[in-house]
Design goal:
The complex is a heterodimer. By secondary structure, chain A is an alpha+beta fold. Chain A has five helices and three strands; from the N terminus they run ααβααββα. Chain A starts with a helix and ends with a helix. The chains are: A alpha+beta, B mainly alpha. Chain A: This is Transcriptional regulator PadR family protein.
């Protein structure tokens, strides 16, 4: 089948844009890399570990996340949570997402794909 | 900790900026340990690391900024300059090699001549490729802006309204080719000033210049040539005359002219033996040079006047700024 790789590509592209929104939404509570991976996986958001870890670091350098090292456990872990800037951005991103969603649903509704 | 993990982490952070390495290494190690969930068997470790993908890919994700030798926004210009330079350098090297072989004392066979020409063209092309690439890589690294000016609808409108202000692509490319050839000639003049000479049968050639006196001036001439070349590149990139571009272009032309006049009237650079070949004395020679300078001055002025007419008289701002009828 020729269509398959095209479809996979399109779906990957579609998801890539929403990853930041997904990640930010789960960081009201502080999480470390692997625990966040599991939280997202439990909620049916499949994200690769090699995408998530660098993304967390990037969001931190952009000032959307705050981090702290927890050294009380046997292994030190780096915990991430939303910064106040991150919280604002998340709010705006979420409303942009909902708006986009409404419009796209309307488009799809016209052609009765929904 | 498992040896494989240490190696994986080290290999990943090796490709990161030094300031990030320690932090990313610690974090990545902790994450890998979490993914293992206490199972430190070699199979589990291998499986986990395979799932994480190659260290190079992971490092690229961490860097988030793509690394280029020559960025996509510079690439078109790079390719164009590379083509022009290769063409010019290739042709000129070929010519020079041929000419120098005719003056060589020992006889050569056709096969030897061809291989000699091919070899020198190849080495000239390799080094021009190297230098153009290095120049553009440095420009990319320091993010020198080679893009056209911010494109907006006003630019489009003025394009429609005053098409005569367009700088012809061929003209700027012609300038670039001409200047490159000239630059190569300057290089030859710098390295082998004695090649410009009167060649006679059964006697040593008489060079026109005194090499030591001429050399320092050639460097200055190279600088003005590079300046004019940059203006030609700019004209090619901007495509349309603007007052500032015209001023720059005129300045470069005048500078080149002044330098030529300055250089050609340094009488000590001429070889007296060369002048003695002709019946003309030094005074006569000076008059010839001065006349040549005047002719050149007039020609430059005519060309500048033509450009100035294009820039100032044919600009009709009223037309270009009027909003389209709705």
């Amino acid at each position: 089948m020729k269509e398959e790789p095209i479809l996979t590509n399109l779906i990957t592209e579609l998801k890539r844009g929403t990853l930041t929104l997904c990640v930010l939404s789960q960081l009201e509570e502080k999480q470390y890399g692997y625990s966040l991976l599991q939280v997202l996986c439990d909620k049916h958001i499949a994200i690769e570990a090699n995408t998530l870890y660098p993304l967390l670091r990037r969001l931190e350098t952009q000032g959307l996340l705050e981090s702290s090292w927890d050294t009380t456990e046997a292994r030190p872990r780096k915990f991430y949570s939303l910064s106040s800037k991150g919280r604002t951005i998340l709010g705006e991103l979420a409303s942009a997402w909902r708006e986009q969603n409404t419009h796209i649903n309307a488009l799809l509704g016209e052609e009765s794909y929904a | 900790m498992h040896d494989l993990i240490t190696r994986y982490v080290e290999e990943t952070v090796r490709n990161l900026p030094p300031k990030d390495r320690t932090e990313v290494a610690l974090e990545l190690e902790a994450n890998i340990q979490d993914m293992l969930g206490g199972d430190t068997s070699t199979e589990k470790v291998e499986e986990t690391l395979l799932a994480l993908g190659s260290p190079a890919t992971l490092a690229r994700q961490y860097r988030s900024k793509e690394r280029y030798l020559i960025g996509p926004e510079t690439f078109d210009l790079y390719l164009m300059v590379l083509k022009i330079v290769s063409l010019v350098v290739g042709l000129v090297t070929m010519m020079i090699t041929f000419v120098s072989m005719f003056f060589a004392s020992e006889p050569t066979s056709i096969g030897l001549m061809i291989s000699k020409v091919l070899a020198s063209v190849f080495s000239a092309l390799t080094s021009s490729f190297l230098w153009v690439t290095i120049t553009f890589a440095i420009m990319s690294y320091y993010q020198v802006n080679t893009a056209l000016e911010e494109w907006d609808i006003k630019a489009l409108r003025s394009l429609e309204a005053v098409p005569t202000r367009l700088i012809k692509k061929g003209d700027s490319i012609g300038d670039m080719v001409g200047l490159s050839i000239f630059f190569v000639l300057l290089l030859v003049m710098y390295n082998r000033p004695e090649l410009i000479a009167i060649y006679r049968k059964e006697a040593a050639p008489i060079p026109l210049f005194i090499a030591d006196a001429l050399k320092p001036y050639i460097i200055g001439w190279m600088v003005t040539t590079i300046l004019t070349f940059s203006v030609a590149v700019m004209k090619y990139a901007k495509r349309i005359w603007k007052t500032s571009l015209f001023a720059l272009s005129a300045l470069a032309d005048l500078l080149g002219l002044c330098y030529f006049i300055f250089l050609s009237t340094r009488w000590k650079i001429y070889n007296p033996a060369f002048l003695n070949v002709f019946p003309a004395s030094m005074d006569r020679w000076q008059i010839i040079i001065k006349a040549a300078c005047v002719v050149l001055l007039i020609l430059t002025m005519i060309s500048l006047g033509d450009d100035a007419y294009t820039v100032f008289r044919r600009t009709r701002p009223n037309v270009s700024e009027k909003a389209p009828a709705r």
